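Contributing new complexes? Match this layout with PRP.
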Amino acid sequence: MKNYPNVTIFDHPLIGHKIAILRDKNTGTKEFRELVEEITMLMTYEAFKDAPTKEVEVETPLEKCTQRIVQERKIAIVPILRAGLGMVSGVQKIFPLAKVGHIGLNRDEETMEPHEYYCKLPEGIENMQVTLLDPMLATGGSANAAIRFLRQRGVKIIRLMSIIAAPQGVEKVAEANPDVKVYVSTLDRTLDEHCYILPGLGDAGDRLFGTK
Ligand code: PRP
Ligand code: URA
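Output block (do not edit by hand):
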């Protein structure tokens, strides 16, 4: 795959270790959910390195100093339903005050085109840095549709965090949105004929919520 300046692929041993368990077909719902949360926490460390900050004064036991802190209220996270919900708690562990919006999309099983069924975004989202959460970036159709919704609402700073991506999805999102920073834990080989990621982990929504 081509190199895109707006795409970061982590390939970190700690994340890789957890993804191995996540992929395993014998990993049950509880452990799957915990792993998605933990991987998201690890990804947040890197993906938010340019989070908005401000300087505050702190008094240590010895003296006063200034320290930069994150302006959590300028951060919004938006999971793409359903599977993106699994990543919310991972970001909230780090930024408990971040606003949370929701975009409901599912793929038409025939055409693979995303279909919108829900959209509720925080007031004032146009002035926030918004991070879309979706563990799977397959064809890129859902991510691109969610990015379009955010742009229509006037959002200017958008990131996307996905745990597993196919090259086809990364290319589609990165080329259509050079201003969107895309963070991916691992890049897989390709898509199958049903647009599932190979080797992937199967259906992330079903594995998170135990629906199949
Ligand atoms: C999955 C996944 C992404 C989308 C990725 O959702 O969570 O949102 O597919 O595929 P794409 O890149 O080809 O658009 P799905 O439509 O299966 O809905 P679900 O989360 O409700 O299971
Ligand atoms: N959505 C999933 O949940 N898994 C895939 O492999 C592709 C899309």
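Reviewers usually confirm one structural detail per submission. For this one: The longest helix spans residues 29-47.
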